[in-house]
Amino acid sequence: MKKFAIAVIALAVLLVGTAMAVDPIPATSETQGISTSTAVTVIGTMTNTETVVMTISNQDLRNNPPLTQYWPDYVQNATTGALVATNNKTFAPERQAVVSYSESILADNGYSEFNEAQTMDTANRAEMNQKNFKSSEQFDYIASETAYGRATTSESLLLDLASQGNDASSRFICPFATGDQGMIPAYCNVYEMGSSFTGTAVSMINQASTNFIAKAADVPTNMDYSVSLAGQGSAAAWINAHVMEGRTGAVYEDVNGTTIAPSGYVDTVVVNSDLLKNKVPTVGFMQSVDLVYKEKTTASGTIAAFSKSMTVQDALRRL
Question: What is the pLDDT of residues 272-287, one digit of tens each?
Fold first, then answer.
């Protein structure tokens, strides 16, 4: 590959960590694993496009929105012994995660080298270093001296998380992880990270990964993105985040058959009630955090070094 001049340095590094309350989604009984690898060396034109969209819930996706789910209460017929559904409904908290990844490369009239490895796995992750999605790419390009060559790249990773809350005792292996008053509060968090480049010469490495499927809430939800490049042209990298976190008031056990609900909940009919059964969210949860974070770094010209690294760990038990 022809060497190119280096004159300007652009360097940016970001590490973001937020102490939030995301509860991972457990895997379905049947899981899927998809892996691909690509290697291209060419003089001329090269293209590469990828799109991943996955939505997963601990309940039924087909009736979302809204997330709220209700289960009928059952009573036993004294004569036949059969279970009969009643008009009473039990609130069943639901949570949902959406991951989206897109990437495109168009390299025209030049010399290109491209290598990538991608994996997608819907199984439970036992630690945050085990990823449900991971992408690693290396791309080198230099335009032809006899043609108007140019390379354009873009990449974006998004993670959207929402929950109605849950009983912490049913989601943690750790006996000391009690949540907020015994509850995992409601949340609605979305994160986006990505980068782009356009120019006549570049040598770049991109990495993107996330984990959001786990059997228990002890495993932190994690999202990582990094880009490192040098070349001739224009480069950009960014992170956007909007975090809305809830809080739960005091919770009281049944007293003489009457359940006193936590703040933000209201009772329906008490039938062998436990911490969450028969409690329905009112018009709004107790929202206690509203965070908007945006950051973008750009460089244009002869770029000697451009590096940006971004990480979000969203969990009740952060590592």
Answer: 444 444 444 443 467 8
Per-position DSSP letters for 210-246, written without gaps between them: EE-B-SSTTSPEEEEEEEEEEEEEEEEEEEEEEEEEE
Is 312 inside any structural domain? no
Residue 70 has pLDDT above 80, yes or no: no
Residue 251 DSSP label: -
User: Is 257 within a domain?
Assistant: yes
Q: Which residue, chain included where needed, has tokens 């990449």?
A: 155
pLDDT digits (tens, 9 = 90+) for 197-244: 999 999 999 999 999 999 988 888 999 999 999 999 999 999 999 999
Beta bridge partners of 204: 139, 229
The Cα–Cα gap between 312 and 302 comes to 31
Is residue 1 situated within a structural domain? no
Q: Would you say residue 112 lies in a domain?
A: yes
Q: Give the domain extent around 207.
A: 46-298
Tell me whether strands 279-281 and 265-267 are parallel, antiparallel or unpaired. Answer: antiparallel
Cβ distance 11 to 303 under 8 Å? no
Cis ω for the linkage preceding 65 (within 30 of 0): yes
3-class state of residue 174 by DSSP: coil
Q: Rounded to the nearest 5 degrees, what angle is found at the Cα of 211, between the Cα atoms of 65 and 242?
A: 55
